[in-house]
Amino acid sequence: MLKKMTFFLMLFSISYLCAADGKAIANKLGVSASSKASAQWERAASQDREPFAGLSADEKNALLDYLIKHAADSNTPEAAGM
Predict the structure, then answer these.
(1) Of 79, 55, 77, which is closest to residue 66 (Cα–Cα)?
(2) Burial of residue 64 (number of CB atoms within 10 Å: 0-12, 13-18, 19+)
(3) Which of 2, 8, 15, 64 lies at a C-alpha separation of 20 to 30 Å from 32?
(4) Is 12 a domain residue?
(5) 3-class secondary structure for the chain?
(6) What is the pTM of this model?
(7) What per-residue confidence (pLDDT) applies to 36?
(8) Dmax over Cα atoms in the chain, in whole Å?
(9) Dist. CA 66–CA 77, nearest whole Å
(10) Residue 24's domain spans which residues?
(11) Residue 40: inside a domain
(12) Does residue 82 lie within any of the structural domains?
């Protein structure tokens, strides 16, 4: 039973660490969501420009989702220090 529980916790921990969210990716790349409008982020993603160049499809989707939700023209723009 203890081995099963340990295995489950290790599996969960690994999957959690591997699945980075958009905010973590943006912080890692030094990107501020409120520096552009949502249409600008969509255009950069569709043309595979910075900061999207070199990211996997999952990372690109997570980052784009975060950047659009917190873009300068969104209802919840990213505030300084958050």
Answers:
(1) 77
(2) buried
(3) 15
(4) no
(5) CHHHHHHHHHHHHHHHHHCCCHHHHHHHHCCCHHHCCHHHHHHHHHCCCCCCCCCCHHHHHHHHHHHHHCCCCCCCCCCCCC
(6) 0.70
(7) 93
(8) 52
(9) 10
(10) 20-76
(11) yes
(12) no
Token reading at 3? 């081995």
Q: Confidence band (pLDDT; 50, 70, 90) for 18?
A: very low
How many domains does the chain divide into?
A: 1
Q: Is residue 53 part of a domain?
A: yes
Task: Report yes or no: 38 and 2 within 8 Å, Cβ to Cβ.
Answer: no
What are 25-60's pLDDT values in tens digits? 999 999 999 999 999 999 999 999 999 999 999 999
> Who contacts 21 (Cβ-Cβ below 8 Å, separation ≥6)?
62, 66
Q: Which two tokens stand for residue 15?
A: 């999957």
Looking at the chain, the whole-number percentage of residues with pLDDT higher than 90 is 63
Closest-CA residue to 62 (of 35, 24, 11): 24
| Rounded CA separation 25/44 (Å) | 16
